[in-house]
Here is the input.
Amino acid sequence: MIADLYSGTPDYLSEISKIKGLIVPQGMGESHSFMVQYKGEGLPELRGFSMRNQVGSL
Here is the structure.
């Protein structure tokens, strides 16, 4: 959804990176990833997971 909002700008991936930087300013290192997902007004959601933990559970 965020990609849809910024798809008209030449550097929309940079805009998405700025949004992530507002949420987690110091980053989460190489072991974690997170995705910003827009679900509409009043429904914010942020989920994260560790690749290390996921690999260990296989």
